[in-house]
Amino acid sequence: MSVQVVAAKMAEVELKDVPSKEVTPESPLTPKTDDKGIVENESNAVVTSSTTPTTEPTVKAGDPSPGFLTPNPIKMPQASAMKRIDPQQNGGEAFVNRDGTVAEAPRLKKIQFADQKQEFNKRPTKIGRRSLSRSISQSSTDSYSSAASYTDSSDDETSPRDKQQKNSKGNGDFCIKNIKQADFGRREIEIAEQEMPALMALRKRAQGEKPLAGAKVVGCTHITAQTAVLMETLSALGAQCRWAACNIYSTQNEVAAALAEGGFSVFAWKGESEDDFWWCIDRCVNLEGWQPNMILDDGGDLTHWIYKKYPNMFKKIKGIVEESVTGVHRLYQLSKAGKLCVPAMNVNDSVTKQKFDNLYCCRESILDGLKRTTDVMFGGKQVVVCGYGEVGKGCCAALKAMGSIVYVTEIDPISHCPIMDGFRLVKLNEVIRQVDIVITCTGNKNVVVREYLDRMKNGCIVCNMGHSNTEIDVASLRTPELTWERVRSQVDHVIWPDGKRIVLLAEGRLLNLSCSTVPTFVLSITATTQALALIELYNAPEGRYKQDVYLLPKKMDEYVASLHLPTFDAHLTELSDEQAKYLGLNKNGPFKPNYYRLRTSSDQFNTT
User: Fold this and answer.
1) Is the dihedral of CA 126, 131, 135, 137 positive or negative?
2) Most confident of 142-151, 478-487, 515-524
3) What is the pTM of this model?
4) Helices (H) and strands (E) in the chain, counts
5) Composition bias, kind Basic residues: at what positions (predicted)?
6) CB count, 10 Å around CB of 390?
7) Which of 171, 362, 470, 538 could tie 445 with a disulfide, CB 3.0–4.6 Å?
8) pLDDT tens for residues 529-542?
9) CA-based Rg of the chain, rounded to a whole angstrom?
10) What residues contact 475, with CB distance under 8 A and at least 6 apart?
């Protein structure tokens, strides 16, 4: 085989026929593999000349060091060696020596990890979810072994209302997703107990006295591991409990199963329909031979349902405990209209709950919810937070710390002005076209209406951190011209005819409890406050509380806070007698007057 070269511009070099080892041309895409798994690439080359001769072979990225490549370590003079490249063979190279002969470049050897490839190919292509978790690690198998039925059950799509389930004791007074998840849920509850020191301390101190003996509590809250600790505490204090979920997406199915296995009448599962939601509440309330005498509500739906369907029950109900902005607002409306039949305790505006559940909790959970659903990077993003109450403050602080540019909408000109915290106060219509994320946390209705949704930029994320799903006008998006596309759990793309889309999270419902979790320690404070409020209303002598809405007494509020101090190894300073007299306080508290509060729910309904 011979090769001829045209004379170079700098110097004409006549090349002689060079005998060489004959090689069958092969494409680099079909490498030749020897028995050892080594791939050798060989290619024909067309000799070309270069106006700038190289002194050393060109080393490709990822190849071994030059010392392993050069067969002759002697450095060649400039212009005496010219590189030839065949562009159709991915850079196969040869070099012209000083005597005019052409030498082939050394063949590059690349490692083919054949063993790994073969082992990978041997893996089954179809494996069940539980088998996959087993292949990952034994510990993950141990964690999920008790819940195997819910990962690969064939009847997952069957409505729980169509199932007949019983626990190990033969009791079937519940309606949940799958009773077989109970062991897994029990472990979740045990973990939660470790982070709820105040509630566990209350259970230990009061279970001997049974302050709720005879109480029949009907509840409508988020059914999570933390709520389960509350329910079991109420039971330990003597109460009977029946429970439904206040949110169709926040129920932890395995926890509901554990509660049902433990004898609690629970009616809830994740992903309920609207009809299922009201059906579950009705099943809690409407039981022959059982009538509630206490209500624990979160959002006011349970209170509303009893008031609408079973008003005569209020004759035996001693009180209502409500923890959300929305629910408290409903109670104030009933009170103002003279329709509130029983005393109600507003625990939402207790100082400890406001600080921890609303401010500190949302400061952590807003980022968790957004990350889990959208994988968004916060740095540089423009975000508008609607409402600057305690929830809004927490959201703004977290987003600012992550490098977001934060705008705030608010109606209150004095008490909670975000300007002093470094945020720009705007109207929503001023920034709606440019922001990347819209977060509502007002407790109001129609904060983000269709007009704003139409003007949002492509890819804008829309979510709600308030309790109610009325803040974002989701109903206006269910029209024929808009397309809904489910991307992942709790994440929908709503697509306009021109191709623009927004990312709607949890269909406008509460983001953190629908799409992620909240810190257990925070819920310890809320749950302890709820338990004390139930004890107070249930045991209060007749006449102490009238048919109105009350704040939790400051003495109890401070007691809740004090129960959590040992967790941090924190120690309070005690007043001397002289100091207490000077301030006009009792040495043991309360240290704040009853009218002291961070912000009332009646003031908290912000708009844009």
Assistant:
1) positive
2) 478-487
3) 0.67
4) 21, 21
5) 123-132
6) 27
7) 470
8) 999 999 999 999 98
9) 35
10) none
